[in-house]
Amino acid sequence: MNVFKQAIIAVVLASIIGFLTYTAVSQYVVHKAEENLRNIMLSHRSFHAYIQQVMHPTYYKARDAGKIAEDFYAPEILSSSYVIRVMHGFFNEERKRSGLSEVYYKLAANNPRNPVNKADGKEAALISLFNNNRDLKEYTEIATIDGKKYLVYAKPFLETNQACIRCHGKRKDAPPGLQHIYSGQGGFNETAGVIRAIESVRLPLNDEFKTTFIVTTVSLSVAVILIILYSFNARLRLKVDQSTSELKKEIEERKLAEEALKFTRISFDAASDAMYWVNPEGCIVDVNEASCRALGYSREELLRMTVADVDPGTTNEVWQQNFSELRTHRTLRFESSHRAHDGRIFPVEIVANYVRHGDEELNCGFVRDISARKQMEDELHNRDETFSQFMHHSPIYVYIKEVTPAGSRVLQASDNFDEMVGIPGSAMTGKMTAELFPAEFAAKIDAEDRAVVTKGEVHKIDEDFNGRNYTTIKFPLVQGERILLAGYTIDITERRRTEAALMESEQRFRSLLEDIPSVAAQGYALDGTVLFWNRASEQMYGYTPEEALGANLLDLIIPEEMKAGVTGAIQKMAESGEAIPAGELLLKRKDGSRVPVFSSHALLTPIGGQPELFCLDIDLTERKCAEEQRIKLEQQLRHAQKLESLGVLAGGIAHDFNNILMAIMGNADLALMRINRESPAVENLHRIEQASARAADLAKQMLAYSGKGKFVVENIDINTLLEDMLHMLEVSISKKAVLRINKYSPLPTIDADATQMRQIIMNLVINASEAIGDKSGVIAISTGCIDCNRGYLKDVWLDESLDEGLYVYLEIADTGCGMDNDTLAKLFDPFFTTKFTGRGLGMAAVLGIVRGHKGAIKVYSELKRGTTFKILLPASERPAEVSNGTGFQSDWKGAGNVLLVDDEEAVLGIGTEMLKELGFNVITAEDGRDAVEKFTVTPDIDFVILDLTMPHMDGEQCFRELRRLRSDIKVIMSSGFNEQEVTQKFAGKGLAGFIQKPYKLSVLREAIQKI
Questions:
Q1: Helices of type H across 71-194
Q2: With helix as H, strand as E and coil as C, how does 288-334 read?
Q3: pLDDT tens figures, 631-683
Q4: Are 526 and 613 in contact (CB under 8 A)?
Q5: Rounded alpha-carbon distances, angstroms, from residue 990 to 112, 430, 960, 972
Q6: Beta carbons within 10 angstroms of residue 159's beta carbon
Q7: Which of 155-159, 314-318, 510-514, 884-888 has the lowest mean pLDDT?
Q8: Could you give the 3-state DSSP secondary structure of residue 731?
Q9: Which of helix, strand or coil describes residue 370?
Q10: Burial group, residue 931, by CB count within 10 angstroms (0-12, 13-18, 19+)
Q11: 3-state secondary structure of 893
């Protein structure tokens, strides 16, 4: 029966293995076939895509452009079905050469152009299936055709679209070449949206399935053989199991016994304490590993020894007595000493146990080295002794208390308490606080003690007792679960008196330094931290005491280039005690400006404190200014004397030169009148006349320089003069320079020579153009009038005691290279020039002309920032109202919408009020981005007032965006920078005006009226 069951099981298993093998191999074959099929399809699809997406558009584009004939059509490059069919034929030829079966492939259609592509019955059914079920993207099955197995695959090849109708619609619409090649109606009369063709592929699988059958047969045979072997092995294994079962049981029992013995030994050796087995005669019977480590002997050595060899205080007689006692008490605990192999003797604690096994008596002893414990006990004893000595000799009051609900009880106190309460510390032990201090003071102490213990915090208390001052520190003292209170008290009576005296002295010292108005005093630590800062320091350097105290003096007033030297000087003073030498320094203020001071230092070391440095600074600004003014006046005086001498010389030469020129020019003029106009000498006379005119101009410059030129004085308007010269000025300057005219009107007239004024303007404008050079820049010519007082006129070239009063000014500013101080000092020297040699008197002549008109010149220049010349000329008449550039209607009102843009809320607020006062409706924006958005949605904005510096989008970017949105929008730029710096950024860009912050209503009205 067992054999029959095994046979049934073998057959079932073989069947299952065969079925699973056949299924797995078949699935693998189909999977690989599908992969090959998809690769073939992808290859064919790529050819089709290339023809449809590249060749067709190229053909129609070329045909429509007339580059190829209308009747041209080549199926070899324009018919995807033709190309793929030919390509597949090559593919099958290669498969045959490789010994593989051919793959059936057809672009099957019901109405093909080429009969080769005519769909068979199955393919026609699939075309109908795909048209009826548009969600079906592909069809696959394993089918037997003509007795052979195939993997049949179909996929819609092309859905007719509008582009396809050109070749597959009406025959007459197809290319003539296509009509010529294919006769009949094949491929024509298709409808858009219909799937007209499918890709039909049949991949042969006969060989693969044969292989599958072979693999399945082989695996089934192997399975049957293995099952037979397994059945034979099972019967043999049963007999072996029965034979070895008893032997295995016996081995297991022995192993359990050995494991128990081994565990006992391991536990014995693993014990951390030394263990000894000793017989009644004192011989050591057994020891563990800890015994060997403790004594430094091997186990074999110890087993040859007795107790007397290990314990120097135990003899054989003593051991016999101890063992007898052990029989009685069974367990003994005592301390002794053991001697190690190296002779070292160390204390041990021994627990001896009496053990009887049959007739054998043994002592099982546990031995522990207590050297560390003994050492700790000695240290604790020494600490207790040290603490007792400290409490006896302590210079401060020290105590330990126990805090109870009834109050605090003293556990220990230093002996010096008799100085405070009249009782020594030893007598205070065990007493309550109420027994040592008055009731009210004792209650206060108990409350503080409870707070310290309850909160677990350190408390510091200042208190007075019996007319003296004390500072007490109390803290919790944790001893296991018990919390005590410890503290110490220091008598600070004398320190308080000393501190009061020092504070009084320091107050007098600080009051003295605070009240010195002309001396800036600072006190600071050796690391530079400011400790004292008087009112004079605040006035001199700009820092309030709140800003200065605690800051570093090096960061406050020491310039960067001096920090290393000052640090070294402070360190040297601290090390040697020598004071820093007094002297002049140039220190910095809060605003970054520099101030010259005379500085002296002192090193002070307060009693019990750290050394401090005190610095006393005296402002030398006025003294320096006076010295510079004196030097400047001396230089101007010397310059004036030099110019006066040269002027006298130039005037004399010019007058004599003019007499000679008069003769030359007169004779030349007469000769021209008398000579025949066709004479060759006429040209020579004209050249004489031109040279004489140039010489006359030179004479005029010399006279102008001398200040004695003969002016044709008339009452002129500088604005009118500028208008007449505007064209000549524009053609005289560089093409990269922008000329801007800012005229103030109405302008008072002046008494002046118009020709000389033109010469001044032309000279200064040409100089400005040359200063700009090849770079882009701005030349601004401004006019106006100003009331000049003596303070304003003191810095002019030259100050010849000009009268105070109303002056008309002509200002010419450029953004060129600027001048350094050396060039400025020589600017008006005769024949000095920064140009090539031989350019005449130049600026000296300008100075002479201005001086001859009782005027003055102011010059402002900075390297790489530009130069400004301001010509001051006395006004010939005072107008009815002089407002220095604000001659507009004070009651003027406007109307319309204004976009006000600024990132400051305060500016938006006040600006809105001003504009409303002027009659405008105001729209506000907080930055450039907000301004562009509001400008876009508000079409009727009349003009914009735009801040230059803003987050997100600054004024310059916003200006460009606004002009891009509306090119005629008027924009007034607003900024804290001056007009010259701002407007040069917008030169030639259509900026309507500029207004400098902060501005008044009148200035705003004027700026709006100008546009």
A1: 75-78, 80-97, 121-132, 162-168, 176-181
A2: CHHHHHHHCCCHHHHCCCEHHHHCCCCCHHHHHHHHHHHHHHCEEEE
A3: 766 665 565 555 555 555 665 666 566 556 655 766 676 677 778 878 888 88
A4: yes
A5: 73, 99, 10, 10
A6: 15
A7: 884-888
A8: helix
A9: coil
A10: buried
A11: coil
Spatial contact of 286 and 303, defined as CB atoms under 8 Å apart:
yes
Q: Which residue in the block uniquely carries the two structure tokens 């860009």?
A: 989
Cβ atoms < 10 Å from Cβ of 946: 25
Helix (H) or strand (E) holding 598: strand 594-604
The pTM score is 0.28
Question: If 0-12 CB within 10 Å is exposed, 13-18 middle and 19+ buried, where does residue 841 land?
Answer: buried
Closest of 416, 466, 460 to residue 441, by C-alpha? 466
For the stretch 973-977, contacts whose Cβ atoms lie closer than 8 Å and that sit 24 or more positions apart, written own/partner, are 973/946, 973/948, 974/902, 974/945, 974/946, 974/947, 974/948, 974/999, 975/947, 975/948, 975/949, 977/948
| Beta-carbon-side half-sphere exposure of residue 499 (alpha carbons within 13 Å) | 7
User: What is the DSSP secondary structure assignment for residue 488, as one 8-state letter?
Assistant: E
Both tokens of residue 508?
Answer: 């007098």
Q: Name the residue among 92, 78, 86 with its Cα closest to residue 187.
A: 78
pLDDT digits (tens, 9 = 90+) for 483-535: 888 888 888 777 777 777 666 666 666 665 666 767 888 888 888 888 888 88
Give me 539's structure tokens: 């006035």
Helices (H) and strands (E) in the chain, counts: 33, 31
- What tens digit of pLDDT does each residue of 441-452 get? 888 888 898 888
Extended strands (E) in 370-426: 397-404, 407-413
User: How far is the CA of 89 from the CAs of 93, 103, 106, 386, 741, in angstroms?
Assistant: 6, 9, 11, 113, 88
Return the structure tokens found at 997. 């912050």
Residues 628 and 101: their CA atoms lie apart, in Å, by 112
Q: DSSP character for 646?
A: H
pLDDT in tens, 68-118: 877 677 777 777 778 888 778 887 888 788 887 788 888 888 888 788 788
Are 859 and 867 in contact by the 8 Å Cβ rule? The answer is: yes
CA 282 to chain CA centroid, nearest Å:
84
Computed from CA positions of residues 433, 439, 445, 451, in that sequence, does the dihedral angle turn out positive or negative?
positive
Do residues 205 and 33 touch, judged by C-beta distance below 8 A? yes
Cα 191 off chain centre by:
66
Report yes or no: 709 and 703 within 8 Å, Cβ to Cβ. yes
Q: How far apart, in whole angstroms, are the C-alpha atoms of residue 206 and residue 151?
A: 10
SS3 content of the chain, % helix, strand, coil (to 5): 50, 25, 25
Q: Which amino acid is at 719?
A: N
Report the alpha-carbon distance of residue 90 to residue 744 in Å, rounded: 95
Give residue for tokens 């105290």.
549
Beta strand ranges found along 949-998 (DSSP E): 970-975, 993-996
The two structure tokens encoding residue 194: 């219909």
Whether the bond into 175 is cis, omega within 30 of 0: no
